[in-house]
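Record type: monomer structure entry
Structure origin: computed from sequence
Chain ID: A
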Amino acid sequence: MPLFTDAPVSNIPDLSAYDSQVIDVASTEGIDLTRKLAAAQDDLAVELSVLLANLKLADQPLWLTPSPNLANVVVTKPLRLWHIYLSLEMVYRDAYNSELNDRYAGKRDQFHQLAECAREKLIQSGIGLVAEPVAEAATPQLITIPGALPDGSYFVTMAWVNAAGEEGASAVPAAITTSGSSLQVQPPAAPEKATGWNVYIGSELDAMVLQNQSPIDVGTVWQQLTPLATAGHRPGTGQNPTYLKPLPRVIQRG
């Protein structure tokens, strides 16, 4: 699962999956869906920060000392649903304010209630937290080097690993074409908590497979000089929560 601070919690296709009319409404009313997604995430960040600040230190395991912050938060299903419904509520709020159309008001109120339900589910089930958060990797740089990989196009992604062996979310893949050569993968600067990284390569986007047998040291490049592994671990979406913490009900949203 990705971290809350990795990237937008949900995207435009997610909104469309829960409301098939939202793209048409946004186009008609001149609403920027990307900005609404960002605004909803900002709202969630404020609420989650207050909720986390109110967690009692005595109720936390030792590895979460001091109190966790947004960097420790994992995007669980209730949190993703909260973001989707809140984003849709904001869209239809703007649409109603523009046209004073009762149909938009009904949608606004519907998604407001759904957002409240998702928030309540998050409070009941607990917020997902990780002890050693590993940020989503940025896309690595690829170059060709002398070697004898089969000629063709290759897709490459990477993920950072922490000291516990937990892997963060994989990077947006890069692509490279070789001809009488091999390839080298240069990772970006390592984030805090990263102690190594994994590399995934494949001849197709959905066929990328882990190539290293153990995490590669931070600051070390990877040279793919041998034939690709074609079976094994695939790129992941991030860390699973190591702890679920029920949240105090300290914010009443109107």
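Annotation 1: The chain has two domains: 12-133, 141-224.
Annotation 2: Strands lie at 127-129, 141-146, 152-161, 174-178, 181-186, 196-202, 209-210, 216-217, 222-224, 243-245.
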